[in-house]
Amino acid sequence: MKPKVAFVCVHNSCRSQMAEALGTLYGASIFESYSAGTETKPEINQDAVKIIKDLYNIDMNETQKSKLLSDIPKVDIVIKMGCNVVCPYLPAKHIEDWGLEDPTGKNYDEFMKTAKEIEAKVKDLARRINNNEIKLDE
What domain of life is recorded for the organism (predicted)? Predict the structure, then answer.
């Protein structure tokens, strides 16, 4: 069984959505990706959608939607995106905070920087899970 990873932030519209898309792209053989928040937005941040489409050719409008914590299955790993407010709490065997700044409302370059940071962190997460550096056994 592959571990389930939830990328969480408050609104589940930008960073956590990019992380879900990149988790699916780079980690699918190692973990299942989900994203969620304590509130939802009617649509995913369209700047985030554009950058993921431009860089990775994934259309998040087609593959993902804003979800609440209650909409996703029980997970093994929770990745907080870096909420300056209180991050949503989900029980998990492993929790870490990536401390990413929210690029919402910023320019294309900021979104690109955030996407590349998430890509690097997702690849590192996949490597750590694969190497059993993250302990998930009870």
Answer: Bacteria
